[in-house]
Design brief:
The protein has 186 residues and is of the alpha+beta class. The chain has 2 domains: 57 residues; 94 residues, Glycoprotein, Type 4 Pilin (2-Layer Sandwich), CATH 3.30.700. The protein contains 6 helices and 7 strands.
Length: 186
């Protein structure tokens, strides 16, 4: 019934030579004509509310899936960072990781003292001279590593050398230069 009233409305609005075709012709409902009408004249879809409800649910579903994917990527990145930070410089055991962290801290302290000494005296000196002039209070070793400073006129290099066997996967040497760049060697 609704389609027929729309068809009649369209037929009444059509004008042929100033006369309405509605008065002169007998109208019959033609389903093919109903399908070819512009969308502005079509009746509301009987399932429009259900379609809108489905679109809302799909939007929520895609939003939830987006959050899950972002969380999965975040967990992957986090796990990779935990793996890399739990074994600094290749240490395989927690004790070795603690030792390596301590050695790196000592190397930074010695390098900072060298830089301070250079700023005040204009030259780089050995570890013994840094300790005797009270520029640093670091001990000369942290087992299984011992420290030495290699100096030149243009820079320095603080080296920690491991003595003994490599039982915990620690590097044989750790070093830091005047630019505070670390290097390791096996």
């Amino acid at each position: 019934m609704l389609k027929k009233s729309i068809f009649l409305k369209i037929a009444k609005s059509a004008n042929f030579a100033g006369k309405s075709c509605f008065r002169h012709t007998r109208l019959h409902w033609n389903p093919a004509v109903g399908r070819s009408l512009p969308s502005g004249y079509l009746s509301a879809a009987p399932f429009r509310d259900e379609i809108a409800l489905g679109e809302g649910q799909m939007g929520r579903l895609f939003g939830f899936l987006g959050v899950v994917i972002v969380l999965a990527i975040g967990m992957y990145v986090y796990s990779k960072q935990v793996q890399s930070s739990s074994a600094p410089a290749g240490a395989n055991t927690p004790k070795a990781a603690i030792n390596i962290t301590g050695v790196r801290s000592d190397l930074i302290s010695i390098a900072t003292a060298e830089r301070r000494y250079f700023a005040s005296e204009g030259k780089y000196v050995s570890l013994d001279e840094l300790i005797s002039t009270n520029y640093i209070t670091v001990v000369r070793q942290r087992p299984p590593y011992t420290y030495e400073v290699q100096t030149s006129s243009s820079g320095f290099r603080v080296v920690a050398i491991r003595s003994g066997d490599n039982t915990s996967g620690t590097p044989a040497q750790l070093s830091v230069d005047e630019n505070m760049e670390f290097q390791t060697s096996e």
